[in-house]
Write a structure and sequence with these properties.
heterodimer; A: mainly alpha; Four Helix Bundle (Hemerythrin (Met), subunit A); 72% helix; B: 210 residues; Rossmann fold; 9 helices; elongated
C-alpha cells in the first residue's frame, strides 16, 4: 500500500462514532425501538376497533342485540333488526391457536437458553419446533378465515376484524421468516454462547408477536 | 427507567405477564364491564410504575477487577464542578509521591425533553469544553490525566468507565448540599453501594472560588 493510500485509509470519514452506553446492545436497542413502533401500529388498529365497537351509533340504539354481538348479521337487516342471527366467532379454535402460540414462546425461549449453554441440538430443536408451531398457527387462522362466514366487505366490524387479525398474521409470517433464517444459520453452526444475536433478536420479536396475539384474542374474541 | 424487554428472557416474562393481565381483565369484565375497565387501567398504571423503576431495588454491585500495575488509578466523575479548585487540590494530594493515572469523566447532562425529542450534541459539546479546561489545569499541575464524555446518568457513566478503566479509587465531585442535583439524587451513596471501590466525595463551591 502506498503512503498516500495508507494516509487515506486512516482518514476519518462521516460522523464521529456514536456514544455507546453499556446499558443496552445496539442491535437489541434497534429491535426495542422497532417493537415500540410496531406497538403504535397495533395501537392504531385497536383504536379503530374500539371506536367502531363503542361509537357505532347503530350498535346500542337501533339493535341492542348487535351491541352484544358485534359481528355482522347473516342476512340483510329488516327494519334495522337482524332476523337471521349473527355470525359467531370460533372462540374455542382461536383459544387453541392462542395455546399454540404461547407454547411457541416456550420453544423459542428454550432455543435461546440452549445456545447460551452451547447446546446446539437444543437450539436447532427449539427453532424447528417454534417454526412448526408458528406455521400451525397461521394455517389454523387461514382455515378460520375460510369458515368464519363473513368477508371484509360485510361492515366496519368485519373490516376491523380482518384488519387486526390480518395485521397480526402478517407479523407471524415475518417472525417465521426471521426464525427460518436463524434456523438455517443454526444448522450451519453459525451461533455460539458468545455470539447469538441472530437467535435472541428474532426471539424478542416472536415474544412481541405473542403478546400482541394475547391482546387481540382477549379483546376481539373474549371481551 | 427500566427497559422491560432488555433481552429474550425478559421478553419471555412479558408474555406471561400479559397473559395474566388479560385473564384478570377478562374475569373482571365478565363480572362487570366497568370493573374490567378499572382493572385494565390499574394494570396499565402498575406497568408504568414498574417500568419507571418500581420500588427501586438495590442495584447489583459491580465488581471492579483491578490490575496490579504500578500506577494508582483514580476515576473522577464531575460535571459543572470539573474545573473546581477543591477537586484539583484533592487530586494533587492523592497524586503526590505516587505514579498515578487519572481518568476524568464528564457526564453529558441533558434535559429529559432533549433526550426524548432531540439529541445530546449540545450537552456533549458543553461537557467537552469543561473537560478540556479541567484537563489543561491538571496537566499544568503535573497530573497525568485524560478525559471522556460519559452517559448523562452519573452512575451509568461511572459503570461504563470502570469497565475500561478499573480504578483503585473513585472521586465524585459535586456542588455543595442544597445546590447539587447529584446529592439530591443520592449519587454518592449509590456509588458506594454499587461499586466495590473506595468512593471519595469532594464538594466544590464554584461561588466561593470566583
Amino acid at each position: 500500500m502506498s503512503a498516500h493510500a495508507e494516509a487515506v485509509s486512516h482518514e476519518h470519514h462521516g460522523p464521529p462514532p456514536a456514544n455507546r452506553s453499556s446499558r443496552l446492545d445496539p442491535p437489541v436497542l434497534g429491535m426495542f425501538l422497532f417493537i415500540a413502533s410496531e406497538a403504535m401500529l397495533f395501537g392504531a388498529f385497536f383504536t379503530a376497533y374500539f371506536f367502531v365497537r363503542v361509537v357505532n351509533p347503530g350498535a346500542s340504539t337501533v339493535d341492542a342485540e348487535r351491541w352484544q354481538h358485534w359481528l355482522p348479521c347473516k342476512e340483510a337487516l329488516v327494519n334495522g333488526v337482524c332476523q337471521a342471527g349473527y355470525y359467531q366467532f370460533p372462540v374455542f379454535v382461536a383459544g387453541v391457536n392462542t395455546a399454540i402460540l404461547i407454547t411457541s414462546s416456550f420453544t423459542v425461549h428454550w432455543a435461546t437458553q440452549a445456545v447460551k449453554r452451547g447446546d446446539r441440538n437444543g437450539l436447532r430443536a427449539g427453532l424447528v419446533l417454534t417454526i412448526l408451531l408458528g406455521s400451525a398457527f397461521l394455517l389454523t387462522q387461514a382455515v378460520e378465515y375460510s369458515h368464519v362466514g363473513f368477508n371484509t366487505s360485510d361492515g366496519a366490524f368485519a373490516s376491523v376484524f380482518f384488519g387486526l387479525t390480518g395485521l397480526h398474521g402478517a407479523h407471524v409470517f415475518i417472525g417465521l421468516s426471521l426464525l427460518t433464517i436463524s434456523a438455517v444459520r443454526a444448522f450451519k453452526g453459525h451461533f455460539s454462547p458468545e455470539h447469538h444475536h441472530g437467535v435472541e433478536i428474532p426471539g424478542i420479536y416472536w415474544h412481541f408477536v405473542d403478546v400482541m396475539w394475547i391482546v387481540v384474542y382477549f379483546t376481539v374474541y373474549i371481551l | 427507567m427500566k427497559n422491560p424487554i432488555r433481552d429474550e428472557a425478559s421478553a419471555f416474562r412479558v408474555v406471561f405477564l400479559t397473559l395474566g393481565g388479560a385473564v384478570l381483565v377478562a374475569v373482571a369484565a365478565w363480572i362487570n364491564t366497568w370493573l374490567g375497565l378499572v382493572v385494565f387501567l390499574v394494570l396499565v398504571a402498575a406497568g408504568f410504575w414498574a417500568i419507571r423503576g418500581g420500588m427501586r431495588p438495590r442495584p447489583p454491585q459491580v465488581h471492579v477487577v483491578r490490575d496490579e500495575g504500578p500506577a494508582r488509578r483514580i476515576l473522577v466523575v464531575a460535571n459543572e464542578t470539573v474545573a473546581g479548585s477543591e477537586l484539583h487540590d484533592l487530586l494533587g494530594q492523592k497524586a503526590a509521591d505516587v505514579a498515578e493515572e487519572v481518568l476524568v469523566v464528564c457526564p453529558a447532562l441533558n434535559s429529559k425533553l432533549h433526550t426524548w425529542l432531540s439529541d445530546e450534541d449540545g450537552a456533549r459539546a458543553e461537557a467537552q469544553d469543561r473537560l478540556d479546561a479541567s484537563l489543561a489545569r491538571l496537566h499544568d499541575a503535573g497530573i497525568a490525566a485524560r478525559g471522556e464524555i460519559g452517559d448523562g446518568d452519573p452512575l451509568q457513566a461511572l459503570e461504563d468507565a470502570l469497565r475500561v478503566f478499573p480504578a483503585d479509587e473513585v472521586v465524585v465531585s459535586t456542588h455543595p448540599p442544597g445546590r447539587s442535583n447529584w446529592l439530591e439524587q443520592g449519587v454518592v451513596e449509590q456509588a458506594r453501594l454499587r461499586f466495590d471501590v473506595p468512593v471519595t466525595h469532594v464538594v466544590v463551591d464554584l461561588g466561593a472560588t470566583t
